[in-house]
Amino acid sequence: MSPHSTGTDPYVPRHGDARFAVRHYDLALAYKLEGNRLDGEATLTCRPLVEAPSFQLDLQGLTPHKVFVGGKPQRFTHLRGRLTIKHPLTPGEDLAVRVKYSGTPGPVRSRGLGTAGWEELEDGVIVAAQPHGAPSWYPCNDRPDDKATYDISLSVPPGYTVAVSGEPSGTRRKGNAVTWAFEQTVPMPTYLATVQIGRYRQVDQPGAPVPVRTLAPTSVDSAALECTFGRQPAMLAFFAGLFGDYPFASYTAVITEDELEIPLESQGLSTFGSNFVDTAWESLRLIAHELSHQWFGNSVTLKRWQDIWLHEGFACYCEWLWAEESGVSTVQAEVETHHRLLEGLPQDDLELADPGPELMFDDRVYKRGALAVHALRLHLGDERFFALLTGWLGEHRAGNVTTEMFLEHVRGAAGEDAAALLEPWLFETALPACPVPEAA
User: Fold this and answer.
1) β-pair type (301-302, 400-401)
2) What are the residue boundaries of the Aminopeptidase N-like N-terminal domain, all occurrences included (predicted)?
3) Could you tell me where the DSSP H helices lie in 134-264?
4) What angle do CA 64, 67, 73 make, to 5 degrees?
5) Are 156 and 177 in contact (CB under 8 A)?
6) How far is CA 409 from the centre of its chain?
7) Residue 53: how many CA atoms within 13 Å on its side-chain side?
8) Would you say domain 200-295 falls under CATH 1.10.390.10?
9) What is the CATH code of the structural domain delimited by 1-114+130-184?
10) What is the pLDDT of residue 438?
11) How far does the chain reach from its first CA to its final CA, in angstroms?
12) How far is CA 288 from the centre of its chain?
């Protein structure tokens, strides 16, 4: 079956099936750290969108043993990470699809996208699924435009803490395992679902409109933690004042004992290595960056991976907003610094609104996107600019968007000239002039 017929995104080929949508995932998992063994049973509530003789789920590196639809055993094949279930789709008839599976989970590898997904730590696990790693731990319809709610339970040995991109709903011990349960009631794309397992202590951090907590190993100094991650409540309150209510029930930061090269984004939860417990601006800006993704990326999510600038450009701009709020710098100083740095880099290989899979996480996407945001702000003025963003985020809360949808929103809220101002930033390779205030 061709990628086109199943609706896969060209940036992440052979993932996802557009012929149906998943409304809910119920995942019952058991994990043994010794031997890296995962046993799972996933029940998906699926809504067919077209008629088809079969459909596909994504599951990589794990073995499906049995598949049931509506409680009845089904024939299936599993090849190259695609689980084909030989049951017809009929619009209007929801399907309960249950998959029993097991194996030794590991990252999904892609020549163009690198690795993503389930990864063992020295003493625990992280899941960094963006953009194609979700099938490393559960069968799913791995498309960013297919959001669903979740119930997740995970059994692990005593002494370990589990964090999931959802709200805790209890723990229970049975024998030599503790089962942690979570629910995610806000629809979530597959790549933002995560599991973190480690020997963590929980630090509650008051002062935000919603509960904020940090999970950290005992080796992390409490004073250093307070000087860095203790600023999260103030960051959250600041961004909520600019962009509207925080879109989830709580926010969690997980700090692994291991050092990590970059932080990891997921819905309602971000993961950092112990090396980010550092008061240097490089760490603080990334704490702000990941938190801002809860609005730009996790609540309002791209439909297509080519529109990644809608996540990263705004999150980068939020770094600059926090730099100004916290007295580190000013937004305009950051704009001028990073425009100057971009001027020294090649431009002819990058179109911001469609950078290609190899460049979708290139730093130029982040910085050029943030510069485009600032150009729009200077054109509109602060009152109209932040009102436009609040309207955008409110209108598409828990939904999916494209660059064209953002431009249409800008036209409706601010006029054709505002949308036209963005077009060279988005669709031309040449770098526009540095956005500066008119009085400058």
Assistant:
1) parallel
2) 24-192
3) 222-228, 232-243
4) 145
5) yes
6) 23
7) 2
8) yes
9) 2.60.40.1730
10) 87
11) 58
12) 15
Tokens for 209? 């409109």
| Per-residue model confidence as pLDDT tens digits over 302-354 | 999 999 999 999 999 999 999 999 999 999 999 999 999 999 999 999 999 99
CB 142 within 8 A of CB 58: yes
Pairing of strands 212-216, 269-273: unpaired
Q: Which residues neighbour 415 within 8 Å (Cβ) at sequence distance 6 or greater?
A: none
Query: What pLDDT was estimated at residue 1?
Result: 37
With a cut of 70, list the residues of the chain below it in pLDDT: 1-7, 440
User: What is the spatial distance between Cα 141 and Cα 137, in angstroms, rounded to a whole number?
Assistant: 13
- Asked, colleague to colleague, whether 1-114+130-184 and 200-295 share their fold, the answer is no
Cα 323 to Cα 138, 263, 265, 289, 292: the distances in Å are 39, 18, 20, 11, 13
DSSP reduced 3-state for 432: coil
CA-to-CA separations, 17 to 54, 56, 200, 368, in angstroms, rounded = 11, 6, 37, 32
Tens digits of residue pLDDT in 213-233: 999 999 999 999 999 999 999
Query: CA-CA distance, 69 to 33, in Å (whole number)?
Result: 31
Q: Which CATH code, of 1.10.390.10, 1.10.150.130, 1.10.357.140, 1.10.10.10, is assigned to 301-427?
A: 1.10.390.10
Side-by-side strand order, sheet with 72-73: 72-73, 63-69, 95-103, 37-48, 20-32, 148-156, 177-188, 167-174
Name beta bridge partners: 196. Answer: 163
Number of separate helices (H) and strands (E) present in the chain: 10, 23
Which pair of structure tokens corresponds to residue 287? 């704490």
For residue 131 the two structure tokens come to 């953009």
b/e map 15-44, b = 16+ CB within 10 Å: bbbbbbbbebbbbbbbbebeeeebbbbbeb
What's at 69, amino acid-wise?
Answer: V
Region for residue 5 given its phi and psi (left: phi exceeds 0; alpha: psi -120 to 50; beta: otherwise): alpha
Is the omega angle on the peptide bond into residue 187 within 30 degrees of 0, that is, cis? no
Residue 27, amino acid: L
